[in-house]
């Protein structure tokens, strides 16, 4: 497999004064430097392959290269995956590298130092980056796989399995810290009619529209899940009944204002929403059942409305 490491910032300078002093202290040839650097790179790669966690990966990388490449810190960014990892500080001379594996960008690494690198340090560092590339790529693939396992492929929201894990954790935290926790259960009205009249592709488009409108209404701290079929749930931490009901109304109104293009046909969509706020000592099953009962009350009372659990 081909590995490419390209210098992204040409302002990174090599200090010739330090290079000369360094050469006088360490009198080895360029070929010897290359051989030592290759062995160093292989050793670093072996160490980095012990983890798939990105934060730990860069912490280990920093520890491993520090004796040969003293630095104050480093920052790894990957805009495609919305990743930013910092180790140490970010002051001093910046050395920026873009990282590419198999002609695919896998992010950018910035190394911070108190002084510019010598040419030998540049050589050693670029070899160490070769030792980073494939452990990094594997860790990114692992992160993507985990992310995909938690997502609904159609709507991009989190899936039911992730909801089961998350709500259990959030209930524990809410009880432990006496924080409010609320739940919205959202159901698309007359969804079967959309499927029957316009086809399943139209139903898929309706699901996407509702997921998009719901996600656009919630806060960064709120989590949207597709629970199953045409049903979504939203978990609201630190939110009481009043706040949860206001958000539910905002979602309902937002969905009702759009006309979703289902198979080329503009289709009006509405949702019914049930709201529940966690009670002291209440468990996951009882919490969800109260929100679900409120949803069915909204359906029974005419749909396109919000009902709050007792």
Secondary structure layout plus pairing:
Blueprint: E1 3-7, H1 16-25, H2 30-48, H3 54-65, E2 73-78, E3 83-88, E4 93-101, E5 104-113, H4 119-149, H5 160-177, E6 181-188, H6 191-198, H7 200-217, E7 223-228, E8 231-237, H8 241-256, E9 259-262, E10 265-268, E11 271-277, H9 284-300, E12 306-308
Parallel strand pairs: 11-12
Antiparallel strand pairs: 1-4, 2-3, 2-5, 4-5, 6-8, 6-11, 7-8, 9-10
Please give a handful of descriptors for the protein shown:
single chain; 310 residues; alpha+beta; Beta-Lactamase; Alpha-Beta Plaits; 2 domains; 5-stranded antiparallel sheet; 9 helices; 12 strands; 48% helix; elongated; disordered N terminus
Tally of individual domains: 2
How many β-strand runs?
12
The dominant shape is elongated
Specify the number of helices.
9
- Residue share in helix: 40-55%
CATH architecture label name of the largest domain: 2-Layer Sandwich
Overall pLDDT: 86
CATH topology of the largest domain: Alpha-Beta Plaits
Q: Briefly, what is this?
A:
The chain is an alpha+beta fold. 48% of the residues lie in helices and 24% in strands. Helix 7 crosses helix 8.
């Amino acid at each position: 497999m081909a590995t490419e490491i390209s210098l992204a910032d040409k302002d990174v300078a090599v200090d010739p004064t330090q290079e000369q002093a360094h050469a006088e202290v360490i009198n080895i040839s360029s070929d010897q430097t290359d051989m030592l650097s290759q062995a160093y790179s292989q050793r670093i790669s072996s160490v980095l392959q012990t983890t798939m966690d990105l934060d730990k990966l860069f912490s280990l990388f920093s520890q491993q290269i520090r004796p040969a490449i003293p630095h104050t810190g480093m920052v790894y960014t990957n805009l495609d995956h919305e990743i930013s990892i910092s180790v140490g500080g970010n002051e001093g001379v910046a050395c920026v590298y873009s990282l590419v594996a198999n002609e695919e960008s896998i992010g950018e690494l910035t190394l911070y130092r108190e002084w510019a690198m010598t040419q030998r340090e540049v050589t050693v560092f670029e070899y160490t980056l070769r030792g980073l590339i494939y452990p990094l790529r594997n860790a990114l693939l692992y992160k993507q796989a985990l992310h995909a396992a938690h997502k609904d492929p159609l709507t991009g929201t989190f899936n039911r399995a992730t909801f089961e894990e998350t709500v259990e954790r959030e209930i524990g935290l809410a009880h432990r810290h006496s924080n409010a926790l609320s739940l919205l259960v959202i159901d698309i009205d007359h969804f079967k009619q959309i499927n029957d009249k316009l086809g399943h592709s139209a139903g898929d488009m309706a699901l996407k529209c509702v997921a998009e409108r719901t996600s656009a209404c919630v806060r960064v701290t709120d989590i949207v899940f597709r629970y199953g079929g045409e049903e979504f749930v939203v978990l609201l931490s630190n939110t009481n009944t009043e706040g949860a009901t206001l958000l539910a109304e905002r979602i309902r109104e937002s969905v009702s204002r759009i006309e979703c293009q289902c198979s080329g046909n503009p289709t009006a969509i509405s949702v019914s929403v049930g709201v529940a706020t966690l009670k002291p000592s209440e468990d996951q099953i009882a919490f969800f059942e109260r929100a679900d009962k409120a949803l069915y009350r909204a359906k029974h009372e005419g749909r396109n409305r919000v009902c709050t659990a007792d």
